[in-house]
């Protein structure tokens, strides 16, 4: 850590902060993946978590996932609400016995010293109705602020986890704001430089927040989105059907492409929801439809090479 | 005798589950010990976020030996029976059995002696079963072993187990068992951050002390005391008072192993938000205490947090971090509050048309209209201004649609009051928003302002009559709409304000409105299905119109109305009974239940104040000699009557014939009865129950001398019948005040 140039230190730059987390989890034997190339509401949707959490094979991975929450857009006016932000996601299967300790060490790696800060594990049961998933764990508090989500997956895509995977999700902007000591997300120092070379989070994302807020709340093409939802749903089913090898439900050859359509449907639903064109009663039925897709994908996945029992 | 020490060390257990878990652990282990014949002297369980601990002391070293006799076959029984007996008892031959003499034939008896096992072995068998079957509200699997079925479930990953057994003066033994790969040992761990090293423990005293040295306070009560004492001291040092919050202190005690209270502050500008909103924000979201200035009685811009460590900088960083979060939260709350203030409460009302109160009882908007009408009816009866009561009923629930109440539902009513005052509503109207929900429980106070009283009664009566109308009465322990609480509320509001109301009439008024709304719901539903059928082309527009007209005709026909009326009478009497039952329960702590029964049995009564006055007067009367003797006399009359009525299979109603009296005592009694009847009736009409009892007292000498001198069962049947009729008159006369036959003693 001492060898790091100042501008790369986690408390100085957002990118240095992310790199420190990546390096830490790489040292723990995780594969460091790059973000999934689709729009999704949370890092959990990444197939490296949702699908890889299923089946008996070992799997340790960490990655940054840009997360889209169309409803959370505030036209760039709220100091910490964003419709696009970064999650850092760690998944370890089976959950190692020292996962809590590893988590605390990862905080130390980004400059949060547990002899100075009050770090707490506060009950929080996690459930994702759209993914048909639930787990038990905590929200992790640092000096009264929720900084991460810590979950032992019990069920994902309607399938029991055996073995159980441990999942950590860090809200990167919020943590970085704390470490850098800024109150407004757009004031985060992105590149760790000062003066003319300094690039802030606002320089990178403020315009995007304004534009996407306009899009999400006022202009997104609902008619097209409704069609896209149906198309994604149909495609998902079609690929799942076609993926069963020799038409027998023993081995599946196309779980990943099918799951992409599930991710798609979920994001399209979030866009429609933000646009306010889905009524309260319909809302429930859309969530159910996405869950059915997720479940079918989970079922297919456990019949693939990576998801299958040996 | 030896002690058992058990500790189950895990990752952080949810605060809300800890107390019950400790209790369950104690109960399960001690029940099982007793069932195994190991009667212990005492047990105590503790919980921290990371451990459940149990100490059981005074356990016998061994189970007692058990001797049982087992009866076998008769002597000379077939060989198969003998072999079966030997097999079942483990005897080698019949020589080992004894013979018991019996007149019906002698038989074999086996004496089986089972020597008790060492307690430590029994405990080693008990504990894994308890751990495997522990009743966590929610439990989980984890780690490598969760790949296989049958892996251990615990609330969060279980890491280690301490189980030792031994007497005070010796090195205890480890109770040898393992659960899903976790071996019981005598090693635990200290505070997660301040003393994480392994600790070897022997017995409870040493365990508790070593934990304390390792920055863990084992006893949750001790942690709570530390939190509250330190918090009070911090507040006091600055001249402030801690706002006491036992529930929060309990929760926080479940979040820390080593409580350290610290004080932080926030910008004074946030004090423009109502105190209750500040408190809800800081307490619910951040688990921190708020602080009051004793000079003003208002909150100050301070809060007290409880950290789990003694930080190396004395807590500066921790305070700073918490202040940032609280600032952000208060900034949100202030925004919500100020946004709410921008909208008039009345302007929110149309939204209630979209919110269903209950699928059969219509929308919130309809309910508010009903409450408004009923409150207007009640207002003059309770001394409230009708217009104010209507206004109050109209806006009392509007705050349900505000941002602050959406965020903190427990502030409903209170926020309504703030918003109503801010928009210049009359003070009584504003207060009703908060007060009309009261009383929320037996400890809560009752509204006293007439406007609040009118709205509170209207709200509760509408709820009760509504759920009675759709037959959703409470049954057994099920009372999902809190109707018992509503009825108790009605009773307390009436009694504590001394209100004279005829409840049955109010029920009827509410019922009429509710039935109309129920019909409205039915009509709306039918309209929707008719529209759909029409859209699908299954129905012509003309027939849809015709069908709707038909339904309206049917719903409002004389036949339906008459039937409804009949049903309503039964239903509302049942609701009245429900209240009277609750009233009795209310009385029970102060008045004998039989007196309540006696006072209630004589006539239908829906004026709760009158009921209670009658009961009170009756109680006092029965404490006097006159009362006691009259009661005895009346009971005697009743007893004789019921015997004779049974014997003759007839009743002795009807006026006695004055011509048949042949003793002066008979005549005197008849005169006294006539006089008392009139006086008592007049007094009762004036609600002068003490006066009525006084009149009753005059009956006593006549009754006494009647029984002294007169033989009821005269040989002459006509005289006997006449005297029995006279006895019946005594009973009838006393019924002006109470049914004496229901009084015990």
Structural descriptors:
heterodimer; A: about 300 residues; alpha+beta; BirA Bifunctional Protein, domain 2; Methane Monooxygenase Hydroxylase, Chain G, domain 1; 2 domains; 9-stranded mixed β-sheet; 8 helices; about 20% strand; B: about 750 residues; Alpha-Beta Plaits; 5 domains; 7-stranded mixed β-sheet; 4-stranded antiparallel β-sheet; extended
Q: Quick one: how many beta strands of chain B?
A: 18
CATH topology of the largest domain in chain B: Hypothetical protein af1432
Taking all Cα atoms into account, the compactness measure Rg of chain A is: 20 Å
- The structural domain count of chain B equals 5
* Amino-to-carboxy terminus distance of chain B: 54 Å
Strand residue percentage of chain A: 15-25%
- Give the class-level CATH name of the largest domain in chain A: Alpha Beta
Q: Determine the CATH superfamily of the largest domain in chain A.
A: Bira Bifunctional Protein, Domain 2
Mean pLDDT of chain B: 91
- By DSSP, the count of extended strands of chain A is 9
- End-to-end CA span of chain A: 41 Å
Q: How large is the radius of gyration of chain B?
A: 38 Å
List unreliable stretches of 5+ residues of chain A. Answer: none
Helix fraction of chain A? 25-40%
User: What fraction, in percent, of the residue positions of chain B are helical?
Assistant: 40-55%
- How would you sum up the global shape of chain B? extended
- What CATH first level of the largest domain in chain B would be assigned? Mainly Alpha
């Amino acid at each position: 850590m001492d060898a790091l140039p100042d501008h790369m230190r986690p408390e100085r730059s957002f990118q240095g902060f992310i790199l420190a987390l990546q390096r830490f989890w790489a040292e723990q034997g995780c594969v460091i993946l790059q973000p999934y190339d689709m729009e999704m509401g949370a890092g959990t949707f990444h197939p490296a978590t949702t699908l890889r959490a299923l089946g008996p094979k070992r799997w340790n991975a960490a990655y940054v996932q840009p997360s889209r929450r169309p409803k959370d857009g505030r036209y760039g006016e709220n100091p910490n609400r964003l419709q696009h932000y970064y999650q850092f996601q760690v998944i370890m299967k089976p959950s190692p016995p020292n996962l809590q300790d590893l988590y605390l060490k990862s905080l130390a790696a980004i400059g949060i010293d547990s002899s100075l800060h009050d770090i707490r594990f506060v009950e929080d049961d996690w459930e994702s109705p759209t993914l048909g998933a639930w787990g038990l764990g905590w929200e992790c508090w640092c000096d009264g602020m929720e900084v991460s989500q810590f979950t032992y997956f019990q069920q994902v895509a309607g399938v029991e986890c055996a073995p159980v995977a441990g999942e950590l999700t860090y809200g990167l902007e919020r943590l970085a704001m704390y470490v850098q000591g800024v109150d407004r997300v757009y004031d985060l120092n992105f590149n760790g430089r000062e003066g003319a070379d300094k690039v802030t989070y606002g320089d990178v994302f403020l315009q995007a927040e304004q534009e996407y807020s306009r899009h999400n709340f006022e202009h997104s093409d609902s008619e097209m989105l409704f069609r896209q939802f149906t198309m994604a749903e149909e495609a998902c089913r079609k690929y799942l059907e076609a993926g069963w090898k020799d038409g027998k439900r023993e081995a599946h050859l196309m779980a990943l492409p099918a799951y992409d359509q599930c991710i798609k449907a979920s994001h399209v639903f979030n866009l429609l929801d933000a646009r306010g064109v889905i009524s309260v009663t319909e809302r429930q039925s859309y969530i159910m439809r996405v869950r059915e897709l997720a479940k079918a994908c989970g079922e297919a996945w456990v019949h693939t090479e990576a998801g299958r029992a040996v | 005798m030896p002690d058992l020490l058990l500790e189950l060390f895990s990752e952080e257990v949810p605060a809300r589950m800890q107390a019950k878990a400790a209790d369950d652990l104690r109960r399960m282990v001690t029940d099982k010990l007793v069932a195994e014949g190991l009667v212990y002297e005492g047990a105590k369980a503790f919980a921290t976020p990371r451990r459940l601990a149990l100490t059981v002391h005074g356990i016998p070293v061994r189970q007692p030996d058990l001797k049982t006799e087992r009866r076998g076959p008769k002597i000379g029984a077939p060989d198969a029976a003998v072999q079966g007996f030997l097999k079942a008892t483990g005897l080698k031959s019949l020589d080992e059995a004894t013979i018991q003499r019996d007149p019906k034939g002698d038989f074999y008896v086996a004496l089986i002696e089972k020597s008790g096992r060492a307690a430590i072995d029994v405990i080693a068998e008990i504990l894994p079963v308890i751990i495997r079957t522990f009743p966590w509200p929610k439990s989980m699997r984890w780690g490598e072993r969760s790949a296989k079925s049958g892996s251990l479930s615990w609330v969060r990953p279980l890491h280690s187990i301490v189980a030792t057994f031994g007497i005070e003066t010796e090195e205890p033994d480890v109770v040898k068992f393992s659960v899903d790969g976790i071996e019981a040992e005598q090693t635990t761990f200290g505070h997660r951050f301040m003393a994480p090293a392994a600790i070897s423990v022997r017995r409870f005293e040493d365990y508790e002390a070593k934990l304390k040295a390792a920055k863990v306070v084992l006893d949750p009560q001790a942690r709570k005391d530390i939190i509250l004492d330190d918090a009070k001291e911090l507040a006091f040092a600055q001249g402030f008072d801690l706002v006491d919050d036992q529930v929060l202190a309990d929760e926080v005690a479940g979040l820390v192993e080593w409580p350290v209270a610290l004080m932080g502050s926030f910008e004074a500008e946030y004090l423009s938000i109502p105190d209750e909103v500040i408190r809800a924000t800081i307490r619910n979201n951040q688990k921190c205490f708020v602080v009051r200035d004793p000079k003003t009685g208002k909150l100050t811009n301070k809060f007290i947090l409880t950290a789990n460590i003694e930080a190396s900088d004395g807590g500066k960083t921790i305070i700073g971090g918490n202040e940032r979060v609280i600032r952000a939260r208060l900034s949100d709350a202030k925004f919500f509050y100020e946004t709410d203030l921008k909208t008039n409460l009345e302007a929110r009302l149309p939204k209630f048309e979209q919110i269903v109160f209950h699928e059969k009882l219509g929308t919130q908007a309809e309910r508010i209209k009903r409450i408004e009408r009923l409150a207007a009816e009640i207002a003059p009866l309770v001394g409230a201004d009708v217009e104010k009561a209507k206004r109050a009923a109209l806006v009392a629930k509007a705050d349900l649609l505000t941002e602050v109440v959406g965020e903190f539902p427990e502030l409903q009513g209170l926020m309504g009051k703030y918003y109503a005052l801010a928009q210049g509503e009359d003070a009584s109207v504003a207060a009703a928003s908060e007060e009309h929900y009261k009383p929320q429980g037996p400890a809560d106070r009752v509204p006293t302002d007439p406007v609040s009283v009118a709205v509170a009664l209207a709200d509760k009566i509408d709820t009760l009559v509504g759920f009675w109308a759709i037959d959703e009465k409470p049954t057994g322990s099920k009372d999902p709409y809190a109707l018992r609480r509503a009825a108790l509320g009605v009773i307390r509001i009436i009694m504590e304000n001394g209100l004279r109301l005829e409840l049955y009439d109010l029920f009827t008024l509410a019922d009429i409105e509710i039935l109309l709304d129920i019909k409205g719901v039915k009509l709306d539903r039918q309209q929707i299905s008719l529209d759909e059928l029409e859209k699908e082309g299954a129905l012509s527009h003309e027939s849809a119109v015709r069908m709707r007209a038909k339904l309206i005709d049917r719903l409002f026909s004389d036949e339906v109305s008459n039937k409804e009326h009949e049903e309503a009478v039964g239903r509302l009497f049942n609701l009245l009974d429900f209240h009277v039952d609750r009233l009795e329960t209310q009385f029970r702590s102060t008045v004998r239940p039989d007196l309540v029964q006696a006072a209630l049995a004589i006539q239908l009564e829906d004026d709760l104040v009158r009921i209670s006055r009658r009961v009170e007067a009756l109680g006092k009367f029965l404490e006097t000699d006159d009362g006691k003797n009259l009661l005895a006399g009346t009971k005697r009359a009743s007893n004789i009557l019921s015997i004779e009525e049974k014997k003759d299979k007839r009743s002795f109603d009807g006026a006695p014939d004055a011509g048949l009296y042949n003793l002066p005592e008979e005549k005197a009694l008849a005169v006294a009865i006539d006089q008392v009847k009139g006086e008592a009736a007049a007094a009762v009409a004036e609600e002068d129950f003490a006066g009525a009892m006084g009149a009753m007292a005059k009956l006593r000498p006549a009754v006494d001398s009647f029984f002294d001198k007169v033989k009821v069962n005269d040989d002459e049947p006509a005289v006997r019948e006449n005297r029995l009729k006279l006895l019946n008159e005594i009973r009838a006369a006393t019924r002006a005040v109470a049914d004496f036959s229901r009084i015990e003693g």
